[in-house]
Amino acid sequence: MSFLTLGHRGVMGVEPENTLRSFVRAEASGMDAIELDLHLSKDGALAVMHDADVDRTTDGTGPIAAKTLAELRELDAGRGERVPVFEEVLEAVSSPLQAEIKDVAAARALADVMLERDLAGRVEVSSFHDEAVTEIARLVPGVRTVLIASRWGADVVDRAKAAGAATLALNIRRLTLEVVEQAHAESLKVIGWVVNTQDHLRLARALNLDGATTDFPEIRRTGRFTA
Fold first, then answer.
1. How far apart (Å, rounded) are the C-alpha atoms in residues 182 and 11?
2. Which residues does the UniProt record annotate as the domain GP-PDE (predicted)?
3. DSSP 97
């Protein structure tokens, strides 16, 4: 079974997260796929940012939903980078993408782009929200979906199945072999996040995970050889 390595917000350990610079570096590092996050701007653009507010990752303040795309463009997202929109990422890299949506509204906006550009084969869609996973699957036939969880109960595999997800993305620090085996028994893949150390990489291998999300390029290089 191949082990997939996903670049977390590009390679945020070495570049400003969720920027074109970070995504290009992730692709150059050989990541199997690139993970990114989507929020809707005030005027409905698919802004690529993780937090609901711009405070942590830019020189601005306030919620993304209260800013137009033009206002977001004025912000420095690190090393002079600007806040990209999803469509720009599609053009900047050719790698497969895993797009995390934060709410159902973002799911609908993403679905419009995916249908227009026939992206079901290239873009996998993830979310912490079961209803967002269900909605994108309803809107985009054939899309591959991922249910994410940081803390979860005994029903997490059942939740993923009910939402139509093909993959679970779970916090490596809380992941157990029992959950992985239960998921695999139901033909679900399991990805661990965030795998940034050799110890966590060895754990990912020992748990027989299908892949890992990482902040650092070197995890991709050493992951091929870690038993």
1. 30
2. 3-224
3. E
The predicted-structure confidence for 16-35, as pLDDT tens digits, reads as follows 999 999 999 999 999 999 99
Cut 0.85: pTM above it: yes
The kind and range of the H/E element at 146 are strand 145-149
| Pairing relationship of beta strands 46-48 and 97-101 according to DSSP bridges | unpaired
- Those residues whose C-beta lies under 8 Å from the C-beta of residue 92, and which sit 6 or more positions away, are 20, 23, 24, 84
- Distances 125 to 17, 130, 143 between C-alpha atoms, Å: 18, 12, 7
List pLDDT tens digits, range 177-191: 999 999 999 999 999
Return the amino acid letter for 27: E
Q: Are 163 and 134 in contact (CB under 8 A)?
A: yes
Q: Quick one: pLDDT at residue 225?
A: 54
Q: List the end-to-end C-alpha distance of the chain, in Å, as a whole number.
A: 13
